[in-house]
Amino acid sequence: MGHGGDVVAELTTDHGEVKDYFQRLGRTSVPEERRKLADLLTIELVRHSVAEEQYLYPALREHLQDGDLIADKEIADHGRAEELMKQLQEEDAAGTRFTAVLRELETEVLAHIYDEEQNLFPALRHACTQDVLDELGDKTRRAKKLAPTRPHPGSPSTPPANKLLGPGIGLVDRARDLLTGRGKDDKVA
């Protein structure tokens, strides 16, 4: 988090981190490591998604010709991913169901990343000034700092409700994480 740069650079860096978590998960069969990595992956995905929903998708609606359709599709993708993250949280990391849900999540997320990087980001770069992209990058970083760290499939995914409720939900999630030690990256291969 806090990578710097414009919104495209920021979100592309997030994508690299997400891909790395999937790769690390694929290399381990130790249940404790799988749980810890799945938690870190979930935290990153939730914060990333919340920031996109708060700032990127409204920008798409404003600056791209079919922005409403694109933003609605992206939000639907996030909804499917959130449901899978919620399922993943509930599965035993040693079980076969955990692996099946993880693979389904990976397929969804990697397709979403590919589409953003190949289509959405270039269109946004073409439609927006560098100042707009830089400002969106700053807003995205701030949003990720306050965002929830756990999936909340029933929570609002569009402004203004997500901007009002997100920080409060995020505060509760971060307090829970602090108490449980969830999200610490120590001792993970």
SSE arrangement:
Elements: H1 7-27, H2 31-63, H3 67-90, H4 96-127, H5 130-146, H6 161-180
Describe this structure in words.
With 189 residues, this protein is mainly alpha-helical. The chain contains six helices and no strands. It has helices spanning 7-27, 31-63, 67-90, 96-127, 130-146, 161-180. Helix 1 packs antiparallel against helix 2 (31-63), helix 1 (7-27) runs antiparallel to helix 4 and helix 3 (67-90) runs antiparallel to helix 4. The longest helix has 33 residues, at 31-63. The chain is elongated. The model has no long low-confidence stretch (mean pLDDT 86).
Short descriptors:
189 residues; elongated; mainly alpha; single chain
What's the short version?
By secondary structure, the chain is mainly α.
